[in-house]
Specification:
Length: about 150
Amino acid sequence: MAGLAGGLTLDEAGLAALAGRLAAVIRAGDVIALSGELGAGKTTLARGLLAALGHGGEVPSPTFTLVQTYPDLAPPVAHVDLYRLEHPAEVEALGLDDWLEGGGALLVEWPERLGAACWPGRLWLRIEGAGGPTRRLTWDVPPAWEGRWPPA
Ligand SMILES: Nc1ncnc2c1ncn2[C@@H]1O[C@H](COP(=O)(O)OP(=O)(O)OP(=O)(O)O)[C@@H](O)[C@H]1O
Ligand SMILES: [Mg+2]
């Protein structure tokens, strides 16, 4: 995989702070893939990012709805959880490409469900270490994110 590799070890407050740094650089049309096992902290990171963008309400896990949108943010964000996706082709029915073309950004939990159909320009964040107090966060940075990630 091309791009800068790197990583950080973070407690929950550190993960929230990192989500804030992500909020400072996210742009229209961005896709952020949040990879990691059950309970890794993908939704926790998404909550931190949405809060840093100014969302003040609840952030329900979209495990059953698959997509939860936050249209009033800048950029508008769709929080997606593909855990229950049975086949990559099912993603087309979710209208995510239209969301991106309309100036939205995507946060995608369980991006592995898409296989090769995952957006090539996505920032790939991986969280490991579910169950303990800290998490190991690693990433793969595509050209579209060079200069924006990793945080200084
Ligand atoms: N350092 C940490 N970073 C993130 N979460 C942490 C950390 N330490 C403890 N936690 C806890 O781990 C849990 C992570 O749950 P979360 O719902 O974010 O996981 P998830 O990756 O979205 O899981 P799922 O695949 O089920 O959607 C939360 O209860 C959170 O409080
Ligand atoms: Mg989750």
